Amino acid sequence: MEKPLVFEFLGLKFDLVGIIGSTLMAIAVLFICIWLSRKVELRPNKKQNVIEYLLNFTNGIVKDNVSDPDAQKHLSLYAFVLFLFIWFMNQLGMFLEVKVGDWMVIKSPTADPVATMSFAMMTLLLSFTFGVQKFGVGGYLRNYTAPVGFLLPINLIEEFTNFLTLSLRLYGNIYAGEVLLTLLGDRLAMSGGIPTIILAAPLAMIWQGFSVFIGSIQAYVFVTLSMVYIGKKVAKE
Question: What is the pTM of this model?
């Protein structure tokens, strides 16, 4: 049974596994963006084509789900960074999982609900901010009673369910993928010696490839739903 790597500071507990994984992936995203965007030319080279494709891809998600032009401009970079960051974090545990004894040191940060809830909270806070900027505090709060006042409790509950579905969908998919990979590598492979190792190796490789696909889909779904939630806040009901 793996143990979490946690330390306390001023009465607060910090999960070092999430901090290490998130920091590594932040550095990776920064390095790749700098590398791809170096020597920008009028006639794009291969590296420039890659980053332009990614920008167009995430811009398309924003434009398809957010109708307000001003919000689109501010959300373009957010969607781009959010997609890359989540994508890299989803893949980390598939290829690099480090344990020291019983202590887990490195795994996918998105296999922890605290990380995915942090992303979801960031999206919801942005949606509140854009809604208040668009309609003012009074106009924004009145949207919770639209189209009729008795829908206020339902609209408030919807905010909470949006937060949960956005965060737990991502967490559940990535966590389940890592658990199955652990079962294949640690349990099945070591259960019967060389025969089970031979059996587990191709299964693990197949699952890793499938997990890359699932991680990519989940990054896309998270960004898309984030834009949907924000788009609803800046659209007139």
Answer: 0.86
